[in-house]
Structure formats: structure tokens, C-alpha cells
């Protein structure tokens, strides 16, 4: 994730398909890459989940259940269940 962040940030609480969460940070950097970090609380396997999407079409999700998903924007993708082998 690129670290050149703009001042576009927001915090707040919400709920979605994976449960209630608090947005701890979000924004878009000068290259047009977006990120959002969410806190799902102590009951989640990965309580500090996040996702980012890049201007080249690629995106990455680190989910509250411990799984991850990456799409390279060109038809390739990788999913990891987070459950081990």
C-alpha cells in the first residue's frame, strides 16, 4: 500500500455483511489509490481489517475472518482462507 496519503479521511461506525465495524481510517493518495481500515472488535479473527484499491485496477482485502483476497486487475486473483493448511 502506498503511503502518500491525502487529507481525505473519515471515521465512523457502521455494519455490513461481516458484522458491525468502526472505520478507523480511509482516504485516497495522490496516485488515486484508495484505502479503508476497519475495526471489527475483539471477537473477529482479524479485528483490524482493511482493503485498498489502486488506480491500475488491482485491489486487496484483508477480511475480519482472517481471509485475504487479491485481484491484480488483469484477470488474476489469489484467495487465502486464513485457515492454514
Topology readout:
Elements: E1 12-16, E2 19-28, E3 34-39, E4 48-53, E5 59-62, E6 68-71, E7 77-80
Antiparallel strand pairs: 1-2, 2-3, 3-4, 4-5, 5-6, 6-7
Which structural class should the secondary elements be placed in?
mainly beta
Instruction: Give the overall shape.
Output: flat
Tell me the domain tally. Answer: 1
> Tell me about the biggest sheet?
7 strands, antiparallel
> How many strand segments?
7
Helical percentage: under 10%
List segments where confidence is low: pLDDT < 50 over at least 5 consecutive residues.
Answer: 1-11
Q: In percent, how much strand structure appears in the residues?
A: over 45%
What is the C-alpha radius of gyration, as a whole number of Å? 13 Å
Gap between N and C termini, in Å? 27 Å
The number of helical elements comes to 0
- If you average the pLDDT, what whole number results? 83
Q: Give the helices and strands as they follow along the chain.
A: EEEEEEE
Biased composition (Polar residues): 21-34, 64-85
Region (Disordered): 1-85
Biased composition (Low complexity): 1-20, 42-63
Describe this structure in words.
The protein is mostly beta strands and 85 residues long. The protein has one domain (12-80). The protein contains no helices and seven strands. The chain has a seven-stranded antiparallel beta sheet with strand order 1-2-3-4-5-6-7, with no helix packed on it. Strand 5 (59-62) and strand 6 form a beta hairpin. The radius of gyration is 13 Å and the shape is flat. The two termini are 27 Å apart. The model is unreliable at 1-11 (pLDDT under 50).
